[in-house]
């Protein structure tokens, strides 16, 4: 059997244990850190838990924390688990199992004792359940007994009941290997494990040590602890490692050193003498945390001095404290007769409120040494160190006090009137009786003899007085300054800023001392600002918000200018400040407070380092000589000690508490903290994850963030939800991540769970293979059947195809013929348009031929007469004239022949041969033909026209009759559009000096030639511009056009490799442009 004790009876006898009289220990000095009065009275952050929350009986008796951070509480009638989010009862509430003791073995397993004895085991669903071992204890040892305490030593379990000490040795499978018991002749009191030694108190017998399988009385303890219960037994290392501190429930503390018992007088004795009982204790950072029935929690240092008392006046539900327990993050759990509480024992935050006399919101703070003054909504209050509470600091002054100002040992108090407190006495300063009230004050650093006081009606100037009776003398009101409602801010260059009622004032003090009131002393500069905006001094420079963005004061320019210093947070910034504490912070649009810092580029960014102070930041602040920060709030006062802010030293992780599918709950080992587990393969595709962070500091404000790798693209937004559901996940691998965000801004370690959603049986590889084989067989059968059928159908189809092919060839031939006829018809239509013009063009040369023929006949007759006369010289002259006439007849005959040939060429059905063509001549010819043709059809038609020919235009290879047809169509349309506008203007009486005008222009470019046809008609509307090149589309009246002109023109130009473009403006006219390449 393993040795249960480390010392023997003989070694104790040699030490000569006995009672040493005397109280010399009072003369000993101890190393103890000094504690201020404010640390004693300030209220630590406390979270209380009521029976309504955990759903059990009120009296809680035991506390322990699992290795996974979960909290367990033993109580009358049950045991409860708390993970920071939800509570769960370990036992059925109807079973009424009282649990009085909780402890852990060397492996971290939790054992419980009370009406039952056993351990907690996490089942396959991840839930802790109680496994009873009560059956291992013989009936005679447990009958009528309850297990009060459980201790572990050297793999042995020691159970204490009122009448028995029972030692168990268990195997790995929790089978009983050995059992030994000791029976009390009277009754056993508390047992303790100190320095690997077991101590137990024996009613009416004293304190006993369990060694060598026997209970041995420690000499001298019967007189002290025979009647009084031993409530505390802890090491006292201040003297030496073997010294033990004993606490009697009703007699106080003793030292047990080298077998000698010595009384240790402490300040706790006074509490015990008042009828309170010492119930238990734990040690913490060299101090002792005591539970004192009737008082609450008492923290005592090694000197026996009370550092702090925490009772119902500071937030506990009851002063009857049944136990204290420190969790992994040094949170102090306090169990009482009415629920439990957690105290942030090491918190840097202390609060002061109504329990200490602060009955309204704190508006201003001033502290020097231990003297602390607060300006509140109901006047000035001062902390009384003797009474340990705040009391009135200024009689008959119940108004709001905003701007307390320290002046050496004096305090300047702006309230309803203006006072100076000197040596604890109030001196009322001279103040105008004009209905105004002082708001704030400042003594400039470079002008300590001047006091500026901002009031509800302006700015007052005081000069330092020469007598104690009048420390400051009023000089007068500074002109040009309106009501002041904010603090004064003094910059590096001595400029002082303040604001009020939409105005910002920059005050420059131009001289030392005080001269007659006026701008000679104080020079104000006034800025109009956003009344709802923010303004503050930051590191000696001045910033403010504005509708145009953040602005910064430029001393060189004497005005505020735009700045990028806040660009990283400007869009989220609602308010910002840096006041007496020196902390720069801003309030975001969602009302969250964030501390700022400068980055390497000099811009302000969020300080992501975790801290405890951010939620308490206020524009009412102060920093004292010990670097303690003080903040005012509507509920009182906050004290912050940055040296104690150790957020990063605390464990903070998230647990996946439960995973459910539509069919069952999934086993969850390690709550998702072990990231090395292989993915779990399951068929379900809908999951619900429940999670919690066992971080018990204002845990109701903890937020959570999730990320399902394989489904989400990134972390989702922070939310208050403690669960996340996914439905209808596609088959594939996934990893669920979850993490928590504490109210201090710290992010926890994440919990992960990897799983694979398996495809349903009909989507597995073998199912797909079966599908493929089945489909393949079906396809093969269908193909064979279909092939035979298709062969028969193909024969019939071939016959039908031959018939249809012949019919189609005939239809195609007919279509080509129809198309050719249609094109020819359009040509004929164009020819018809030309007929009158051609007739006009032919008539001119014919008139010349007729005229010269008649003249020639007359010349012949004259020549005959001259021959008869013998005048041969005249005959020769006449013959020359006759020859000239014949030449002219020949010229005009050829001209008429050319016109006829051109007409025949235009009417020819097909002539696809391209020839070098003079585009200028072609344009001129068709411009004139079009005009005369229209004049011949309508004698009232009239229009101006002209040709702007480029003389450098080269000949281009085109089918001249095709391009001529395009020009004719475009020119006809242009004359029609211009004439139509003239007719419409005549009908409306708005003709004025309008004349129809058509022009044709040619232009030589690098790669092409351009022919433009323009008119001054009404233009083409945008809604039909895209339709004009469509076949059969026309805007002319029915019967006036075929709708094929522009369509055929577009095709002709395109066939030549060119473009036909249109530009039109309503009311001004239209220009069609033909772009033809020089090289086809």
TrEMBL record:
Cite the entry's keywords alphabetically.
Answer: Membrane, Phosphoprotein, Transmembrane, Transmembrane helix
Listed under catalytic activity are:
ATP + protein L-histidine = ADP + protein N-phospho-L-histidine
Q: Fetch the Gene3D superfamilies from UniProt.
A: 1.10.287.130, Histidine kinase-like ATPase, C-terminal domain (3.30.565.10), Immunoglobulins (2.60.40.10), YVTN repeat-like/Quinoprotein amine dehydrogenase (2.130.10.10)
Q: Does the keyword Membrane apply?
A: yes
**Pfam families in alphabetical order:** HATPase_c (PF02518), Y_Y_Y (PF07495)
Recorded GO molecular functions are: phosphorelay sensor kinase activity
Per the UniProt entry, the signal peptide is none
Enzyme nomenclature, EC number: 2.7.13.3
User: Ranges for the Histidine kinase domain?
Assistant: 837-1080
Q: Which residues cross the membrane?
A: 765-785
Q: Which InterPro entries match?
A: HATPase_C_sf, HATPase_dom, His_kinase_dom, HisK_dim/P_dom, HisK_dim/P_sf, Ig-like_fold, Sig_transdc_His_kin-like_C, WD40/YVTN_repeat-like_dom_sf
Please report the name of this protein according to its UniProt entry: histidine kinase
Organism, scientific name: Mariniradius saccharolyticus AK6
The beginning of the lineage is: Bacteria, Pseudomonadati, Bacteroidota, Cytophagia, Cytophagales
């Amino acid at each position: 059997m393993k040795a249960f004790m480390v010392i023997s009876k003989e070694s104790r006898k040699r030490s000569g244990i006995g009672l040493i009289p005397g109280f010399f220990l009072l003369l000993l000095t101890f190393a103890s850190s000094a504690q201020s009065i404010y640390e004693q009275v300030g209220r630590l952050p406390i979270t209380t838990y009521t029976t309504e929350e955990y759903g059990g009986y009120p009296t809680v008796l035991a506390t322990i924390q699992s290795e996974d951070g979960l909290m367990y509480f033993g109580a009358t009638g049950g045991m409860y688990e708390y993970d920071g989010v939800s509570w769960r009862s370990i036992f059925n509430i109807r079973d009424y199992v009282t649990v009085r003791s909780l402890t852990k073995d060397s492996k971290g397993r939790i054992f419980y004792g009370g009406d039952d004895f056993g351990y907690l085991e996490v089942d396959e669903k991840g839930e802790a359940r109680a496994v009873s071992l009560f059956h291992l204890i013989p009936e005679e040892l447990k009958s009528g007994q309850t297990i009060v305490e459980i201790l572990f030593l050297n793999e042995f379990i020691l159970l204490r009941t009122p009448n028995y000490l029972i030692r168990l040795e268990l195997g790995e499978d929790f089978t009983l290997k050995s059992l030994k018991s000791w029976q009390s002749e009277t009754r056993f009191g508390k047992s303790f494990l100190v320095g690997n030694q077991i101590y137990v108190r024996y009613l009416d017998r004293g304190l006993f040590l369990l060694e060598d399988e026997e209970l041995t009385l420690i000499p001298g303890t019967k007189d002290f602890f025979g009647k009084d219960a031993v409530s505390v037994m802890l090491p006292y290392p201040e003297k030496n490692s073997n010294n033990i501190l004993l606490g009697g429930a009703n007699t106080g503390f003793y030292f047990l050193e080298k077998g000698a018992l010595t009384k240790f007088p402490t300040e706790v004795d006074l509490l015990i003498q008042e009828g309170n009982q010492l119930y238990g204790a734990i040690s913490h950072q060299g101090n002792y945390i005591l539970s004192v029935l009737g008082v609450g929690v008492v923290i005592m240092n090694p000197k026996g001095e009370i550092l702090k008392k925490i009772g119902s006046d500071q937030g506990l539900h009851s002063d009857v404290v049944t136990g204290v327990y420190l969790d992994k993050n040094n949170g102090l759990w306090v169990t009482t007769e009415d629920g439990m509480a957690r105290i942030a024992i090491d918190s840097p935050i202390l609060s002061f409120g109504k329990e200490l006399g602060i009955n309204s919101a704190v508006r201003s703070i001033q502290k020097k040494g231990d003297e602390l003054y607060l300006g509140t909504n109901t006047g000035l209050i001062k902390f009384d160190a003797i009474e340990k509470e705040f009391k009135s600091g200024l009689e008959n002054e119940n108004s709001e006090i905003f701007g307390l100002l320290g002046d050496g040992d004096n305090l300047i108090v702006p309230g309803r009137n203006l006072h100076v407190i000197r040596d604890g006495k109030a001196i009322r300063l001279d103040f105008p009786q004009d209905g105004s009230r002082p708001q704030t004050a400042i003594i400039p650093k470079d002008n300590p003899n001047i006091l500026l006081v901002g009031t509800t009606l302006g700015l007052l100037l005081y000069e330092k007085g020469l007598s104690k009776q009048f420390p400051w003398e009023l000089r007068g009101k500074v002109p040009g300054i309106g009501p002041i409602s904010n603090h004064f801010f003094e910059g590096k260059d001595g400029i002082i800023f303040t604001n009020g009622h939409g105005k910002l004032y920059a005050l420059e003090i131009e001289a030392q001392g005080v001269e007659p009131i006026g701008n000679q002393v104080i020079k104000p500069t006034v800025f109009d600002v956003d009344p709802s905006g923010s303004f503050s001094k930051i590191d000696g420079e001045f910033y403010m918000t504005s509708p145009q963005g953040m602005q910064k004061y430029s001393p060189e320019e004497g005005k505020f200018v735009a700045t990028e210093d806040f660009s990283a947070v400007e869009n989220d910034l609602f308010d910002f400040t840096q006041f007496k504490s020196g902390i720069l912070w801003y309030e975001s649009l969602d009302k969250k407070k964030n501390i700022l810092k400068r980055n390497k580029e000099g811009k302000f960014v969020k300080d992501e380092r975790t801290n405890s102070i951010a939620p308490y930041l206020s524009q009412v602040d102060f920093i004292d000589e010990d670097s303690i920060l003080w903040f005012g709030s509507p509920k009182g006062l906050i004290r912050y000690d940055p040296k104690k802010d150790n957020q990063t030293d605390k464990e903070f992780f998230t647990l996946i508490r439960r995973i459910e599918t539509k069919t069952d709950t999934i086993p969850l080992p390690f709550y998702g903290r072990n990231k090395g587990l292989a993915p779990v393969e399951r068929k379900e595709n809908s999951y619900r994850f429940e999670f919690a962070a066992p971080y018990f500091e204002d845990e109701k404000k903890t937020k959570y963030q999730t990320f399902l790798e394989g489904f989400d693209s990134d972390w989702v937004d922070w939310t208050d939800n403690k669960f996340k559901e996914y439905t209808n996940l596609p088959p594939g691998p996934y990893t669920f991540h979850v993490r928590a965000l504490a109210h201090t801004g710290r992010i926890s370690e994440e919990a992960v769970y990897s799983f694979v959603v398996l495809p349903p049986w009909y989507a597995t590889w073998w199912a797909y293979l079966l599908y493929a084989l089945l489909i393949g067989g079906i396809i093969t059968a269908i193909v064979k059947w279909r092939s035979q059928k298709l062969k028969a159908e193909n024969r019939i189809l071939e016959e039908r195809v031959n018939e249809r092919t012949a019919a189609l060839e005939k239809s195609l031939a007919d279509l080509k013929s129809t198309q050719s006829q249609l094109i020819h018809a359009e040509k004929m239509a164009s020819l018809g348009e030309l007929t009158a013009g051609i007739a006009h063009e032919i008539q001119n040369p014919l008139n010349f031929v007729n005229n010269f023929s008649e003249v020639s006949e007359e010349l012949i007759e004259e020549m005959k007469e001259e021959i008869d006369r013998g005048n041969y010289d005249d005959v020769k002259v006449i013959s020359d004239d006759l020859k000239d006439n014949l030449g002219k007849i020949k010229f005009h005959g050829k001209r008429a022949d050319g016109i006829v040939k051109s007409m025949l060429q235009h009417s020819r059905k097909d002539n696809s041969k391209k020839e070098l063509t003079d585009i200028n001549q072609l344009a001129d010819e068709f411009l004139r033909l079009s005009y005369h043709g229209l004049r011949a059809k309508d004698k009232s038609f009239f229009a101006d026209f002209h040709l702007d020919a480029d003389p450098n235009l080269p000949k281009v290879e085109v089918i001249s009759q095709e391009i001529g047809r395009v020009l004719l169509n475009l020119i006809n349309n242009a004359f029609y559009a211009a004439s139509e506008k003239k007719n419409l203007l005549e009908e409306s009486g708005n003709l004025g000096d309008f004349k129809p005008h058509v022009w044709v222009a040619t232009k030589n470019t690098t790669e092409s030639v351009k022919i433009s046809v323009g008119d001054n008609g009404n233009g083409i509307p945008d809604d039909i511009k895209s339709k004009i090149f469509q076949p059969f589309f026309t805007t002319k009246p029915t019967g006036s056009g075929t709708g094929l002109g522009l369509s055929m023109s577009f095709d002709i130009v395109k066939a030549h490799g060119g473009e036909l473009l249109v530009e039109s403006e309503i009311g001004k006219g239209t220009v069609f442009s033909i772009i033809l390449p020089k090289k086809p």
